[in-house]
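F.,

This is the one I mentioned.
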């Protein structure tokens, strides 16, 4: 089945976690905590095919405000594909990047909105985290793995913006 992430199409299967699909394809998505429902950077907005995903779980209900849920927001580290069909989504970090590049004046309002949506869920979030038993070693391993992926993404971003004319340059915008 097809899944579109940040306007690019990828293959996905039932059972795949949204975060893993994005990571495998080096798509722009946040996952500072390595997928352990701690950092809130993996938010995505599902524009199409939300009914094909797993229902909101306890972590998502604790983190996501009613407002964000009504806008189709999911935590990519928690949501998995449950049925075949077409899914289209955009990561919040990509949305912010696009806003920064195209409508920077909207960033302050966007940050205020997201801050407010987090504030209204603080008690639920704290309650959830207080009763979790985390495997600290596994979390640290996931974080380190996430940092490695982040460096790869940065490398790709630099490479794709390169305009050098050397033979060794692999950049897509390589000139003549
Ligand atoms: S909350 Fe950190 S990756 Fe989902």
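My design for it:
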């Amino acid at each position: 089945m097809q899944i579109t992430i940040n306007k690019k199409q990828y293959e996905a299967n039932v059972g795949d976690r949204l975060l893993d699909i994005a990571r495998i394809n080096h798509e722009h998505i946040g996952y500072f905590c390595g997928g352990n429902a701690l950092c809130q950077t993996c938010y995505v907005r599902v524009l199409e095919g939300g009914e094909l995903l797993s229902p909101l779980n306890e972590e998502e209900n604790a983190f996501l405000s009613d407002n964000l849920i009504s806008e189709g927001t999911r935590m990519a580290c928690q949501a998995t594909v449950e049925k075949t069909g077409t899914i289209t989504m955009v990561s919040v970090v990509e949305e912010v990047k696009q806003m920064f590049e195209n409508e920077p004046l909207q960033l302050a309002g966007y940050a205020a909105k997201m801050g407010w949506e987090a504030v209204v869920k603080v008690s639920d979030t704290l309650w959830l985290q207080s009763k979790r038993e985390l495997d600290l070693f596994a979390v640290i391993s996931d974080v380190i793995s996430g940092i490695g992926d982040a460096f790869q993404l940065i490398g790709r971003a630099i490479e794709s913006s390169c305009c050098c004319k050397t033979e060794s340059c692999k950049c897509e915008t390589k000139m003549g």
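The helical segments are 18-24, 58-63, 66-70, 92-102, 107-119, 122-130, 136-160.

Talk soon.
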